[in-house]
Amino acid sequence: MRVTTPPATSPPTLRALVSVRNLDEALQAARAGVGFIDLKEPSDGALGGLPVAAIGPIVLALRHAAPATPVSATIGDWPADALALIERQVARVAATGVDFVKVGIEPGPGAVALAEALGRQRRAGLPLVPVLIADRAIDDALLERVLAQGFAAVMLDTADKRGGSLLQRHGDARLAEVIARVRQAGSLIGLAGALQLGDLPRLRQLAPDFTGFRSAVCAGDRRLGLDAARLAGLLGALSQPATQAVAA
Ligand SMILES: O=C[C@H](O)COP(=O)(O)O
């Protein structure tokens, strides 16, 4: 599955990645027309993983229901120093047939070693997308180590979903700088982290390649089920011209 940046002449668009926890939610997201479907267990943390055996059948069903929609899955939240376990889990999740395997990288001890281990797996052919946990400062040195690995895409996300969205934690100038740096390094950039409808005007200005949502498409709590009305509302707002979306 090839995912590309729209041509520079296109109007700014925001492609939505929506995180789902089971087949019902995956088909609901596919029918609603989301840009990317992300398989994870939201009750198990920011990057909670589904049982590996559950991923393959969902991917297969999505290939029929939405063949053009890229599918990602997370490996679960692991301590950064559990490198052997992480590498094994990456290989197991990749073998399910997903387009991308998402792995969280929390700044701190072990983060650089993890980024480099993931880089080795990428060079071995595994479709990895590192997710930099950015509740606090975005660590430039760590970002550079991640970018040096040549991943197709890099995401920013937050671990604590109750402390405000990614956009409430970082100013536009800083996020724009990070987006530009990731693109300059040749990777796509995705933003996530308790993003809400009210963040859309700023997101449109920042124009990342994709934006990730779970909290905003659930009724009150990301651990609950996908809410059809909220999902439709989000996709409707994303499809509106920017001036109308600002008023949403
Ligand atoms: O990968 C994207 C995340 O699942 C988004 O979840 P969130 O909106 O609750 O931060």
Automatic annotation (TrEMBL):
Domain of life according to the entry: Bacteria
Entry keyword set: Lyase, Schiff base
InterPro entries: 4HFCP_synth, RibuloseP-bd_barrel
Catalytic reaction equation(s): 2 D-glyceraldehyde 3-phosphate = 4-(hydroxymethyl)-2-furancarboxaldehyde phosphate + phosphate + 2 H2O
Tagged with keyword Lyase: yes
SUPFAM superfamilies: Ribulose-phoshate binding barrel
E.C. numbers: 4.2.3.153
Role played: Catalyzes the formation of 4-(hydroxymethyl)-2-furancarboxaldehyde phosphate (4-HFC-P) from two molecules of glyceraldehyde-3-P (GA-3-P).
Protein name: (5-formylfuran-3-yl)methyl phosphate synthase
Species assigned in the record: Sphaerotilus microaerophilus
